[in-house]
Specification:
It is a single chain. The protein is α/β, with parallel strands linked by helices and 236 residues long. The chain has one domain: Rossmann fold (3-Layer(aba) Sandwich). It has helices spanning 21-27, 44-54, 67-78, 98-112, 116-127, 137-163, 169-174, 192-201, 217-220, 222-233, and strands at 7-10, 33-35, 60-65, 83-89, 179-184, 206-210. It has a 6-stranded parallel sheet, with helices on both faces. The longest helix is centred in the middle third of the chain and has 27 residues, at 137-163. It is globular.
Amino acid sequence: MSKGTPLVLIPGMMCDGRLFAAQIDVLSPHAAVHIAEIDEADTMQELGRQVFEASPFNSFAVAGLSMGGIVAMELLRQDPGRITGLALLDTNHLEETAERRALRRPQIDKARNGQLREMLIDEMKPSYLAPRNRQNAALLDKVLEMGMDLGPPVFERQSLALRDRPDYAGTLRRFKGPAVVLCGRHDTLCPVSRHREIAALMPQSDLVIVEDSGHLSAMESPDAVNTALINWLGEI
């Protein structure tokens, strides 16, 4: 990996650069790193446009976790010539299911009515973390702090963008650059089976399953994620 490898990191829903704190520390000495913001639009198309516009790099490798991975796929759809490498962490390449779509509006209404904190806690403990981390108060507090700092308007915009997102299977199938597909073994939101599907669309990709990690692998298992990203960047 050389210092000439620019990297854009895209955090997940209701997360910011703090999600990637461990990655920034390890990767910054070796690569120019930019943290994308995905909180100002309610469609994937517009979020992708904004990330490109805000990027200080003309071309770059991109790594995204969860919703950040979906935005990374949108970048690839919009302008594949600018993407030199793709890292998809704990994410989903398919369009929203009907069941999940039906949940979005009630959740938005709760956020508008002052229940964002309670909703984040209810979703986070059973769904976001591996069993060993569900009582980790420091980790839970960090995740909750990010969500509350972003607030209800961002929750609504991101929920709508996720609800109306397209299917990215064709986009991934056309990508031939260096790729890594990474998933926590205990990710219940975006399970291992989904990442096997993603990796199958990109035969050149490395599939990494992180043991003892859930949906927030970058925070739960930073050493394993850092190793996977360093290996991936070394191929670019």
